[in-house]
Amino acid sequence: MISGMVILIIIVAGLSYWGFKSNVGKSTGNGPQVSGATTDLENQAYYDENAKVMEFFQDTCSWCIKEQPILQKLGEEGYRVKPMNIGSNHPDNQGMWKQYNVSGTPSFVAGNGDKLEGYQSYETLKAFLDNHK
To answer: Is the pTM of this model over 0.85?
Structure first.
């Protein structure tokens, strides 16, 4: 009887471990998942070094990754933002947090200092970009 219980516990533990390993890195539907790797957010068509609005982002920021399809759609309509990668793999940009008074990513900062912080809907971001052409 005791050996049967031990075998049952081993089987349950094994199945639990297998289930955990097979789901690592899969999306739960609550936004993008980043599992150890960085996403190449910097080389996108909607980025332009001469744009009047800067987007502060980090490669491993799940909200920055979630913002990407919105920026892509706006980019297809001709909108551009200046990339400001302030992630830890860009140590030269770390001072940008303070210089532009950015408290989180993604954040959008216009030349006059106007800001949108956090994930933005298509309509909100488009209106902000329209106001800062």
So the answer is: no
**In terms of DSSP bridges, do strands 107-110 and 53-57 run parallel, antiparallel, or are they unpaired?**
antiparallel
Residue 56 burial (10 A CB sphere; 0-12, 13-18, 19+): buried
Find where tokens 């200046």 sit. Answer: 82
Percentage with pLDDT > 90 across the chain: 45
Average pLDDT over residues 52-63: 92
Provide CATH code, domain 53-131: 3.40.30.10
CA distance 114 to 75: 21
Cβ contact 77:91 at 8 Å: no
Distance separating alpha carbons of residues 94 and 20, to the nearest angstrom: 36
Domain segments of the chain as ranges: 53-131
**pLDDT for residue 4:** 66
* Maximum pairwise Cα distance, the chain: 76
Category of 63 on φ-ψ map: left (φ > 0), alpha (ψ -120 to 50) or beta: alpha
Q: Which of 70, 64, 66 is nearest to 129 (CA)?
A: 70
**Residue 83: cis peptide before it, omega within 30 degrees of 0:** no
Looking at residue 129, what is its pLDDT?
A: 97
